[in-house]
Design brief:
11% of the residues lie in helices and 28% in strands. By secondary structure, the protein is an alpha+beta fold. The strands form 3 sheets. A 9-stranded mixed beta sheet has the order 3-11-10-9-8-7-6-5-4, with no helix packed on it. The protein has a 3-stranded antiparallel beta sheet with strand order 12-13-14, with no helix packed on it. The protein has a two-stranded antiparallel ribbon with strand order 1-2.
């Protein structure tokens, strides 16, 4: 009887370990190994710029973005403003989240946490960016609150038919703005009706190379724009995760729509040649 009782206890424990809240426990072996720290892959020779959206081309006009004439003019104005000392359409200078799709360029390291019903993407850049890619079969809802990172619904698929998942297909909607693709200020449409589609998968010959085939559908584009982003896994046992506090150490000061620099002595400096000082109407301007 004691033996049978032991067998029963073992069987009960097995059920408890394989069932959580009535659902099957997470089987890690069914998913690709995406653990570790991911960095933006080294660009091809000759590619320049601070994290271009299309990693195979230099940033700015060399991206050859299929913009409408209206948004091509906005983009060129952004480049001209940057050439004069401003920040153009890049909102990261204001410590605003860069959002999707720019965050997936990986200006800081990325961590991916795969769970049965949701895949988390964590990137510490300007502010904490935490994408939740829901893989629980949910549908789109009218109650979703727009955000810079958007709302992502995904699906794991087995493209090789080997009995385990190898590719995560994702669609992201419900954005707010303003947002740009890259630090050159290459703009997305002001209506924030962007749709971003991704196929995320490990390279078949290199398990430390992660692909993200990304397509952006946006009213500022004349057609969908597809790029092939690539990430490289750091081969270290205990990676260092940097903390990024946007306002810490920043010398940029925004007053209204104008940007100024703070000197090493703490004084306000112009950012552009011939820039007027800020409006001091509420300060006592009597010289002593």
């Amino acid at each position: 009887m004691l033996f049978r009782g032991s067998i029963g206890a073992i069987a009960l424990m097995a059920v408890l370990f394989t069932t959580v809240g009535g659902a099957r426990a997470f089987d890690d072996a069914q998913y690709p190994n995406l653990k570790g720290q991911w960095l933006r892959a080294r660009p091809p020779a000759g590619v320049t710029g601070q994290g271009p959206f299309d990693p195979d081309k230099s940033w700015g006009l060399a991206q050859q973005a299929p913009l409408t004439p209206e948004y091509q003019a906005i983009f060129e104005a952004s480049l001209a403003d940057q050439a004069a000392g401003g920040q153009g359409q890049w909102q990261g200078a204001r410590c605003l989240a860069v959002g999707m799709p720019a965050m997936m360029t990986l200006f800081r390291p990325m961590e991916i946490v795969v769970m049965p019903d949701v895949t988390y993407i964590r990137i510490d850049h300007i502010r904490d960016s935490r994408r939740r890619i829901f893989t629980d079969g949910r549908a789109w809802s009218e109650d979703i609150r727009p955000s810079f990172d958007g709302y992502s619904i995904g699906k794991w698929i087995d493209t090789d038919r080997k009995g385990r998942f190898d590719t995560l297909e994702v669609e992201t909607r419900y954005f707010k703005g303003p947002r740009a693709y890259e630090p050159s200020g290459l703009p997305l449409h002001a209506d924030s009706q962007t749709i971003v589609k991704e196929r995320i998968y490990l390279d078949k010959s290199d398990p430390d190379l992660l692909h993200n085939d990304m397509t952006v559908i946006d009213h500022a584009l004349t057609r969908p724009w597809t790029v092939a982003k690539k990430y490289r896994r750091e081969k270290v046992e205990f990676p260092i995760w940097p903390e990024d506090m946007c306002v810490e150490g920043s010398g940029l000061v925004f007053i209204g729509n104008d940007m100024y620099f703070q000197s090493g002595e703490g004084y306000l400096m112009p950012a552009k040649k011939g820039q007027e000082p800020p409006d001091l109407r509420y300060f006592n301007q009597t010289k002593k």
